[in-house]
Design goal:
Layout (H helix, E strand, L loop, with lengths): L1 H28 L4 H6 L5 H11 L5 H13 L13 H36 L4 H15 L2 H15 L15 H35 L2 H8 L4 H12 L1 H25 L5 H11 L2 H29 L8
C-alpha cells in the first residue's frame, strides 16, 4: 500500500502542472492590469509601463509561467504583487478560519446525512424516507449563499442568537469560536449533507437487497442490527467516495460562504486577489487547493481496503 501511495503522489505532479497552466492562462487572458491598479487612476502610460517592467508583467506568458514554476519547484510560491508578502505567509495567516469552517461543516454534514440516509434506507417508501429525501433534494438544489442569507436573517437579525459576520479563533474560547462558525458551518454543511444522505441511502438499499441480508432477517436478526453491523460496512466504499468529494467541494463552498459572513479565510483571500489581479496569490492558492483535493482522493482510495478485505494495493 505504501508503494501505491507513493506512485499516486508522484502521479499528481502532471495534474498540478496542468492546473497551474490552465489557471495561469486564464489570468493572463483576463482583462485587467495589476500595474494599472498599483499606479492609480491618475498615472500615465509611461508609469504603468515601468511598473509592468519591474513586476515582469511585460514578458511573454511562457516566460512569466516558467519563472513562477521554477520558484514553485524550489518551494517558493512567490509574493503578492501589492503587499510584497510571501504567498505562503498570507496562506498561513488565513488558513485557520478556512480549516475551522471546513471541519465544522463536514461534522455537521455527517451528523445530518448518515442518520437520514440510514433511516431512509431502513424505512424505504415510508414517510420518513420521503421526508429525508425531500430534504436532500432541497438542500442539494439550493445555492449555498441563499441558505447563508436565510440563516443570517433568522438567527442573527431576527433572533439575535449568533453573530452576523466575523471569525473568533478557538484560542479565545470554545463558546465564541462555535458561535462564529455555527451559521457558516450549517450553510455549507446542509449542502454537503444532502448529497451524502442520498448516496448513503442508495448504497444501503443496494446492499439490503443482497441474499445474506435476507437470510439474516429470516433468522430473526433485527433490521437495525443488520443495517448497522453488516450492511453499512459493505455499503461504505461509495459513501466514503462521496464524503471525500464533498470535503473537496467544501473548498468551493467555503469561498462563497466566507464572503457572505466576512470571514478572513483563504476564500476571502482568493476573492480579493482575483479582484486585484494579484496573480501570484491566485496561482498559489489554486495550487494548494488542487494538492489538497488530490491528497483527499488518495486517502479515500486507501480507505477502501479497511472496508473490503478483497481490495489490495500494490500487488
Amino acid at each position: 500500500m505504501f508503494g501505491y501511495a507513493v506512485r499516486r503522489l508522484l502521479a499528481t505532479a502532471p495534474v498540478l502542472l496542468l492546473v497551474a497552466l490552465i489557471v495561469g492562462s486564464i489570468l493572463y487572458l483576463t482583462p485587467g492590469d495589476p500595474a494599472a491598479v498599483i499606479a492609480g487612476n491618475e498615472a500615465n502610460a509611461e508609469t504603468v509601463a515601468r511598473i509592468r517592467e519591474r513586476l515582469g508583467l511585460d514578458a511573454p506568458f511562457y516566460l512569466q509561467f516558467g519563472r513562477w514554476l521554477l520558484r514553485v519547484v524550489q518551494g517558493d510560491l512567490g509574493s503578492s504583487i501589492f503587499t510584497n508578502i510571501p504567498v505562503t505567509t498570507m496562506i498561513g495567516q488565513r488558513i485557520e478560519p478556512t480549516v475551522s469552517l471546513a471541519v465544522v461543516a463536514i461534522v455537521i454534514a455527517l451528523l445530518m446525512a448518515l442518520p437520514l440516509g440510514i433511516v431512509g434506507a431502513a424505512r424505504a417508501g415510508s414517510w420518513v424516507d420521503h421526508g429525508a429525501m425531500t430534504f436532500a433534494v432541497l438542500g442539494f438544489s439550493t445555492p449555498v449563499f441563499i441558505i447563508a442569507y436565510a440563516l443570517v436573517t433568522v438567527f442573527s437579525v431576527q433572533l439575535g442568537w449568533l453573530p452576523v459576520q466575523g471569525f473568533t479563533s478557538i484560542r479565545q474560547g470554545l463558546g465564541p469560536f462555535l458561535a462564529s462558525v455555527a451559521l457558516p458551518g450549517i450553510a455549507v454543511g446542509v449542502l454537503t449533507a444532502a448529497l451524502i444522505a442520498r448516496v448513503t441511502r442508495a448504497s444501503l438499499l443496494r446492499v439490503l437487497s443482497e441474499d445474506y441480508v435476507r437470510t439474516a432477517r429470516a433468522k430473526g436478526v433485527s433490521r437495525f442490527f443488520v443495517v448497522c453491523r453488516h450492511a453499512l460496512k459493505n455499503a461504505a466504499p461509495p459513501i466514503m467516495t462521496v464524503i471525500g468529494l464533498s470535503v473537496s467541494a467544501l473548498l468551493g463552498g467555503v469561498i462563497v460562504t466566507e464572503s457572505v459572513f466576512n470571514i478572513p479565510g483563504i476564500g476571502r483571500l482568493v476573492v480579493d486577489a482575483v479582484l486585484q489581479r494579484d496573480y501570484p496569490v491566485v496561482q498559489g492558492v489554486t495550487l494548494l487547493f488542487s494538492l489538497v483535493y488530490v491528497i483527499i482522493n488518495l486517502l479515500v482510495d486507501l480507505s477502501y481496503a479497511l472496508f473490503d478485505p478483497r481490495i489490495r494495493y500494490g500487488q
